[in-house]
Write a structure and sequence with these properties.
This protein is α+β, with helices and mostly antiparallel strands and 231 residues long. It is built from 10 helices and 4 strands. The structure holds flavin-adenine dinucleotide. The site of flavin-adenine dinucleotide (FAD) has 10 residues, from α8.
């Protein structure tokens, strides 16, 4: 039976990311207009970063909402895409289970905890096979893909293009890099953040689980990495 590996690609990030944020920051505090600021922008990235860091740490997050990032994601489970689409400031285009009919045995994601247990993994595989057979039987009997899909499991792989602004990426990282988030979405968001950090290393300090940002853990069931909020 097929098993798949997560693929994440950063397909959109502004080349002049620092210039955009710096201009947004300076526009708030300068007598010059935004056009003059961008037209006369300094080449000194450290100077830009010093201001940007100050502005972000004061919570002026509108300045980073101008940075739009786009990712292509393959081999992610429907369970994880459902978690991603809960983020309301993100935009998505996702492979349709209405218009795309799975061919033969569909691809699915195996949670490592199940894969590690030989007995349960066997049952998992059998369940996927039985589901694939029934799905094909439905299609062969004229049931439309949009109805046949109702038996496809959460583990079925999907593919999507996902876009979000930098403020939302930081929020996404804060929530989904926390060990309370499920492993798969943690892996997806980790890859998204790593790709952005490759281009913009200064963002590493922001693309962290929320405990690092807060300085404490606000979860009921803490992983113990940080002290609890009230303890
Ligand atoms: C570990 C974990 C477990 C979870 N478990 C469950 C669960 O059991 N059941 C469940 O249903 N969900 C669950 N969720 C999903 C969670 O409740 C949120 O829907 C999801 O994380 C999106 O977060 P958000 O609303 O902060 O972010 P986004 O939708 O990305 O929004 C970002 C921020 O914008 C603001 N915002 C957005 N929309 C509004 C609005 N309408 N009104 C006011 N402010 C707004 C908020 O400040 C919000 O934090 C879980 C999430 C995590 C990380």
């Amino acid at each position: 039976m097929p098993k798949t590996n997560l693929e994440v690609s950063l397909i959109g990030i502004p080349d002049n990311l620092l210039d955009i944020i710096y201009t947004a920051c300076r526009t708030c505090y300068s007598a010059d207009g935004a056009v003059e600021i961008i037209n006369n922008i300094t080449d000194d990235n450290e100077k830009k970063l010093a201001l940007i860091r100050r502005v972000i740490s004061s919570g002026h997050y509108s300045t980073i909402e101008h940075i739009q990032l786009t990712f292509a994601i393959n081999n992610i489970s429907r369970a994880a895409t459902h978690q991603l689409v809960r983020h309301r400031h993100m935009s998505f285009s996702q492979k349709s289970q209405r218009y795309v009919r799975e061919k033969g045995e569909f691809d699915f994601i195996v949670p490592p905890a199940i894969e590690a247990n030989k007995e349960l993994y066997k049952k998992f595989e059998q369940h996927m096979k039985d589901t694939a057979d029934l799905y094909q039987e439905f299609l062969q009997n004229g049931i439309k893909g949009e109805d046949a899909r109702s038996i496809l499991p959460n583990a079925t792989t999907s593919s999507m293009v996902a876009s979000l602004n930098l403020r939302e990426l930081i929020h996404l990282a804060n929530l989904r890099l926390c060990t309370r988030a499920q492993l798969e979405i943690r892996m997806v968001v980790k890859k998204m953040c790593a790709l952005v950090e490759e281009r913009e290393p200064w963002l590493a300090e922001h693309l962290v689980p929320k405990c690092e940002r807060l300085g404490y853990c606000d979860e009921d069931n803490s992983c113990g990495r940080m002290k609890k909020k009230n303890g």
